[in-house]
Write a structure and sequence with these properties.
By secondary structure, the chain is α/β, with parallel strands linked by helices. The protein has a domain of about 200 residues: Rossmann fold (3-Layer(aba) Sandwich). Helices cover about 45% and strands about 15% of the residues. It has eleven helices and twelve strands. The strands form three sheets. A seven-stranded parallel β-sheet has the order 3-2-1-4-5-6-10, with helices on both faces. The chain has a three-stranded mixed β-sheet with strand order 7-9-11. A two-stranded parallel ribbon has the order 8-12. α2 packs across α3 and α8 runs antiparallel to α9. The N and C termini lie far apart (about 40 Å).
Length: about 325
């Protein structure tokens, strides 16, 4: 396999590169002049330069490649509203158009569970209706609309497989992502509060392996939830606290209090320019309840299922070793 990976400098994208290289694949990564390349240090990669929103630049990067892993996205639950749609929707349209122009054999598109729907305590599958409109979360909505683009290309003959990672944890989250920032917050005992909520947690290495398996085993035009264990928010926070050796949050905040705190965090972040501890849309998403049945990816792709407690411990250890947690 000769693959092009977009979003390769990110948390999931760099893990995909490592998984591909471990299998002996030849890997080209698409980067920009401003890309932070630390996650790719020491990896045997070819570099192409371009922007996923530029169809011609992606087409040039695909020269000689038979597989595309489109993992690039603007991932945040707080930020520039227009950028979510420009990058996540427009970038996906341009990148998949380039793949169609190049005639690649397979495309694996990295979506998210946020593009599916959440109905906990009912355990949802890939087939539930999208219900994130009311959250006002532009990441989720833009990723749903980007999936629509992927389905359109699949209908015209592009061999696209869609994968939907849940809450991903593990090492090498250098940014860190919003999920990584939450681990840091809990591991440093900065908040005594938790809320009612449900989520599904999965190891970043398992997600990367799921991408590679999707390229070889995934059915064209299908989506696969790449996840593992369903937890309540309190159970998840307690696992993080155990891994860090601190006390877990002890006070369950009513929805109104949690939303008020999130509004404060967002206001503060306008001045600090750092991602809020929690956003209003994240609180609303947690209340929707993200519990999933990931058996389709397990049975059809063979995605591994690393114990989540071990994955959280690896993440906390990495954050400590790299100065995110003192």
């Amino acid at each position: 396999m000769k693959a092009l990976v977009t979003g390769a400098t990110g948390f999931i994208g760099s893990a995909i590169c490592r998984a591909l290289l471990a299998d002996g694949a030849s890997v080209t990564v698409l980067t920009r002049p401003t890309s932070d390349l630390r996650n790719l240090d020491g990896l045997d990669l070819e570099f192409a330069h371009g922007d996923i929103r530029d169809r011609a630049e992606v087409r040039a990067a695909l020269d000689g490649c038979d597989t595309l892993f489109h993992a690039a996205a603007y991932f945040s639950h707080w930020g520039d509203r227009e950028r979510f749609y420009d990058v996540n929707v427009g970038g996906t349209r341009a990148t998949l158009g380039a793949a169609a122009d190049a005639g690649v054999a397979k495309v694996v598109y990295t979506s998210t569970n946020n593009a599916i729907g959440a109905y906990a305590p009912t355990v949802a599958t890939e087939d539930v209706d999208f219900n994130y409109w009311s959250t006002g979360d532009h990441y989720s909505i833009s990723k749903y609309l980007a999936e629509v683009e992927a389905y359109k290309f699949a209908a015209t003959g592009l061999p696209v497989v869609i994968v939907n990672p849940t809450l991903v944890v593990g090492p090498n989250d250098i940014r860190p992502t919003s999920s990584g920032q939450m681990i840091i917050e809990i591991a440093t005992a900065k908040s005594p509060l938790y809320i009612d909520g449900h989520l599904n947690v999965v190891d970043v290495g398992d997600v990367a392996r799921g991408h590679v398996l999707a390229a070889s085993r995934g059915r064209i035009g299908q989506r696969y939830l790449l996840g593992n264990e369903n937890l309540t928010v309190h159970e998840y926070f307690s696992m993080i606290a155990d891994a860090a050796g601190v006390r877990p949050p002890r006070i369950k905040a009513p929805l109104g209090v949690a939303l008020a705190a999130a509004h404060f965090y967002e206001l503060r972040s306008r001045f600090t320019k750092r991602h809020p501890t929690a956003t209003v849309s994240e609180i609303k998403i947690a209340r929707l309840g993200e519990w999933y049945d990931c058996s389709k990816a397990i049975s059809e792709l063979g995605i591994p299922q690393t114990p989540v407690r071990a994955s959280i411990q690896r993440a906390v250890d990495w954050y400590k070793a790299n100065g995110y947690i003192e």
